[in-house]
Amino acid sequence: MKSYREFSKAELENELNELNKKYKEYQDIGLALNMSRGKPNVNQLVFSMPMMDILKEDDDYIAADGVDVRNYGDLIGIPEARKLFADFLGIKPEETIVLGNASLNIMYDCMARAMLKGVLGSDKPWSKYDKVKWICPVPGYDRHFTICEFLGIEMIPVKLSDYGPDMDAVEELVKNESVKGIWCVPKYTNPYGGCYSDEAVKRLASMKCAAKDFRIFWDNAYAHHYIYKDVPVLNILDECKKAGNPNRCYLFGSTSKITFPGAGVAFFGASEENIEFTKKQLNAQTISCDKINMLRHVRFLKDMDGIKAIMDKHAEALRPKFDAVLNALDTELSGRDAGTWVKPEGGYFVTFIGNKNTAKRIYELCKGAGVTLTEPGCTHPYHNDPDDAFLRLAPSFPSPEELSKAMEIFTLSAKIATVENLLKA
Amino acid sequence: MKSYREFSKAELENELNELNKKYKEYQDIGLALNMSRGKPNVNQLVFSMPMMDILKEDDDYIAADGVDVRNYGDLIGIPEARKLFADFLGIKPEETIVLGNASLNIMYDCMARAMLKGVLGSDKPWSKYDKVKWICPVPGYDRHFTICEFLGIEMIPVKLSDYGPDMDAVEELVKNESVKGIWCVPKYTNPYGGCYSDEAVKRLASMKCAAKDFRIFWDNAYAHHYIYKDVPVLNILDECKKAGNPNRCYLFGSTSKITFPGAGVAFFGASEENIEFTKKQLNAQTISCDKINMLRHVRFLKDMDGIKAIMDKHAEALRPKFDAVLNALDTELSGRDAGTWVKPEGGYFVTFIGNKNTAKRIYELCKGAGVTLTEPGCTHPYHNDPDDAFLRLAPSFPSPEELSKAMEIFTLSAKIATVENLLKA
């Protein structure tokens, strides 16, 4: 297709006229479509329904260590859950703590405790520093940024590409002692969709950090969540060990997108030294987490083969939706210079990178025609996307048909915003 | 029985000889009995087994607000859970947030957030003060004290009696601006067993606090957990409102001792203003809690009548155990001046107050004969019971037969420790 940049002014005006006419037609239909949230559809939730009555008799409630999961005990999780989710993270059970229903909450807790008490090797609680800074690859996950903002941790954006964060920039930043860590979603990054390269992982593990208590928060939310292709990503804990920095990384994961979002099991991985340290801190917070739900999950998922089997079903459910989004973008926008996008191999999002100063306009246009997107800016710290270019598309919840309709409106909006801008220039 | 204080030296020596002989016999049996933990026996856990498959079809998973509990949403809990646990706390649903699996964790979170960010009305985060102090009625719950110690909050012990904390002392302490709050277990206090009088509740609600952001942490762990008699305790939120201090109190509760310890549902109550404030803070911590477990609980417990019905069963299961402990104390120690104890009307503990400098010795003697008690000192901040007198007995987990045996050893140990001390004097 011809790029809008090659359009004459008259052609642009004519095009805008046509686009606006179509837009009006969509407005008149009065749609209500939502592509804003990375949550599974009910057709994915049903995969885990057999789990709900898998524990039947009294005997079913006894964990491998003899603990009755219906009672207090096992602060860091039942042994079989630690084993399964260690396998999930590619680490040892001794390096794994299984906790509550949400990995996000574990991340918040880790960061809050770092502020209150420091981490292993800290000279003092992080809150006692004048400034604590954190590296935030962008586009990134809004919930990560919210935690930092809430705790008063200054966020420094760093460009994320298909291969991970701009490591030159990261290596420069960590020469500053007040830079205490980095957010990473290493696989099918939220929302970019790329996967960290071996080089990126190795450089993160081995880089020289001025802060000896620097932490990589490795949110492996989509570790086994392929849609088109399972992309191997190096194990950060292995690499940190090899580089002589075993305590540098915290790993996070959950079954939110395997079984039930917010009603699954979440877990934490780290060096044994970090685990020992964390376990002592956790003892001030709680007696034990919901072990019934842990055991229910282990009995249902069984092992990594079991997890992979259910992930195949999720991939199958999600693929037509991602197809719908990507096809619409290809068909409607290819060659138009109205924005670029990233085809993810897995995960829950498609990132659309509009031309400068179009994201908010596209969002508003979509809204005006009944399509809700995630708010522009959410991909950046402090909701500040300096180029006003990034939009996160979340195809998982609507049906493929709804998505096709929503994408007609989205691509139309992207065209309108682009043409409007060119006419202003 | 004759008081040991009236024994001559020769009589004491003779008695000690006899007691030691008996003690040796118990040692030779090689028992292993545990009275250390306030956890229910499996014969109580089975009451809630019908809950485990109460949600069957897809339709069963839809909350009153139409939210699918198997997916994200409802940060502060599903409406029907907020209603039920508001009733539990004697407050309004709008004053109630239903969260995760443990009220202790909610308390930790509230205190950690106060340190990091302050509470509603704070001038600054509490961690920015040179000192934050907290009033701790003693004997009290070790887990409360652990939270304060972890967060570096200085604990000030205040004497607890059958009617609540020494309110004269409390009113004096709160004249100090650095005193930011107080722990309260108002009903069947852990471990004392008493219940706060109307006067104590009213004085707590209305006292003049120098810190305008003073908070009462009202851990109503045993709100409906009678064993012998349901003792009415005034509602702290009502009283705080009446006194013009609606934001002064935080209420906590859970179903840990109704359904499953650590796998139940926990909740938080406060003024609507506090709830609004807390909801915003929670948004940085998590997306939503385990709503499947919330709905499962509501469908099973139904309403306060349902809760009362299961609490009747718990009372029936616990009564013979408390009888065994109290009878042993009465039979073996009455009139001996070897310690006093409190008969609780409900809750999970019996407090034994030995003579000065006997608690550690009794603990060691029990241990030597195979009876594990909660560590002495745990009833006081920093594990510092200055009189070395308090011991917490937890009768819930062992069988009545085991308890009788354990109490034989306990009362024997109390006698030995008392006689030893008198001989030293």
Characterization of this structure:
The structure is a homodimer of 425-residue chains. Chain A has helices spanning 9-29, 42-45, 79-89, 103-117, 142-151, 167-173, 198-206, 236-242, 272-282, 291-301, 304-333, 359-368, 400-424; strands at residues 33-34, 96-98, 133-138, 154-161, 164-165, 179-184, 215-219, 249-254, 266-269, 340-341, 350-353, 371-372, 390-393. Chain A is globular and about 75 Å long. Chain A folds into two domains: 4-44 and 308-424, Aspartate Aminotransferase, domain 1; 62-302, Aspartate Aminotransferase, domain 2. In chain A, 40% of the residues lie in helices and 13% in strands. In chain A, helix 4 runs parallel beside helix 5 (142-151), helix 7 packs across helix 8 and helix 11 (304-333) packs across helix 13 (400-424). The mean pLDDT of chain A is 97. The relative contact order of chain A is 0.18. Chain A contains 13 helices and 13 strands. With 425 residues, chain A is an alpha/beta fold. Chains A and B meet through helix 4, helix 5 and helix 10 of A and helix 4, helix 5 and helix 10 of B.
Helix and strand arrangement:
The structure is a homodimer of 425-residue chains.
Chain A: H1 9-29, E1 33-34, H2 42-45, H3 79-89, E2 96-98, H4 103-117, E3 133-138, H5 142-151, E4 154-161, E5 164-165, H6 167-173, E6 179-184, H7 198-206, E7 215-219, H8 236-242, E8 249-254, E9 266-269, H9 272-282, H10 291-301, H11 304-333, E10 340-341, E11 350-353, H12 359-368, E12 371-372, E13 390-393, H13 400-424
